[in-house]
Amino acid sequence: MRELSTKPYLIRAIYEWCIDCGATPYLSVTVDANTRVPMEYVKEGQIVLNISPDATRNLTIGNDLIQFSARFAGVSRELSIPIQAVSAIFAKENGQGLVFPKPEPRAGAAGGEDAAVDSDGKSPPSGSNGGRPRLQVVK
Q: Domains of the chain, with CATH numbers?
């Protein structure tokens, strides 16, 4: 059985938390050839998107893709974002959320893409667990 990434589950959890708190969930996305977003809004290979229920239609956060439609300058556009392209999800109002570091190619490494970083950009301390990410409570 293949191991599933925790990243889409964490994105869905932070999205739900934002909605429950009355906050506006935003995605930061690293745009590549597989990312369908309005390219005129991409700056330095990044785009930040409001994914609140008021800003999107038919939002689906799947295990491989995030898909929805949204209006840009009054024109409805269909967006498709690979989960790997998501670099952060956070609440607009307070910046709280998760930042996902770029996976670094390492021979034999597992789980590197899912290491959480707090909103200040600090990586969790590594322990004696073979370099694998571990959960850290950030207050």
A: 7-99 (2.30.30.220)
